[in-house]
């Protein structure tokens, strides 16, 4: 990891986009290569790394689990866990960026009602200072 510190790499599906190589305590050799992508809008550890390095937390997935317009025309409106996944694989193959493909059962959290996988994603939030409306509400 030390040899890669402060390095960067070309994004595999977005021409001209450069991604920094960043250290992260949650990435270890015990879980694979020790190198992983960071998706700041899709997990607390990734969000923490992105916040520390002042990276944007763009979310390319909508509330229904479909890629948004910001993901690009090849992915827009495709379900992330279905045809969207296959589209990303085709894009990586076309760009010569896919080194190996194998089926893998990901450990997504599952919704207890629908028994379907849930995608963790950042969303905009807002808060109300209830002290200002407290007297009116009584």
Automatic annotation (TrEMBL):
Q: Which GO terms describe its biological process?
A: isoleucyl-tRNA aminoacylation; mitochondrial translation
Q: Where is the signal peptide?
A: none
| Entry GO terms, CC | mitochondrion
**InterPro entries reported in the protein's UniProt record:** Ile-tRNA_ligase, Val/Leu/Ile-tRNA-synth_edit
Q: GO molecular function, one example?
A: isoleucine-tRNA ligase activity
Q: Which UniProt keywords apply?
A: Aminoacyl-tRNA synthetase, ATP-binding, Ligase, Nucleotide-binding, Protein biosynthesis
Q: Which domain of life is it from?
A: Eukaryota
What protein name applies here? SYIM protein
- Gene coding for it: Iars2_1
């Amino acid at each position: 990891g030390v040899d890669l510190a402060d390095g960067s790499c070309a994004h595999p599906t977005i021409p001209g986009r450069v991604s920094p190589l960043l250290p992260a305590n949650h990435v270890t050799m015990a879980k694979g290569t020790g190198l992983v992508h960071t998706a700041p809008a899709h997990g607390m550890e990734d969000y923490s790394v992105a916040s520390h390095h002042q990276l944007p937390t763009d979310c390319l997935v909508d509330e229904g689990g479909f890629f948004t317009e910001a993901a690009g025309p090849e992915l827009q409106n495709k379900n992330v866990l279905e045809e969207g996944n296959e589209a990303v694989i085709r894009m990586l193959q076309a760009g010569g960026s896919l080194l190996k493909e194998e089926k893998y059962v990901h450990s997504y959290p599952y919704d207890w009602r629908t028994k379907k996988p849930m995608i963790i994603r950042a969303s905009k939030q807002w808060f109300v200072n209830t002290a200002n409306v407290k007297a009116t509400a009584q």
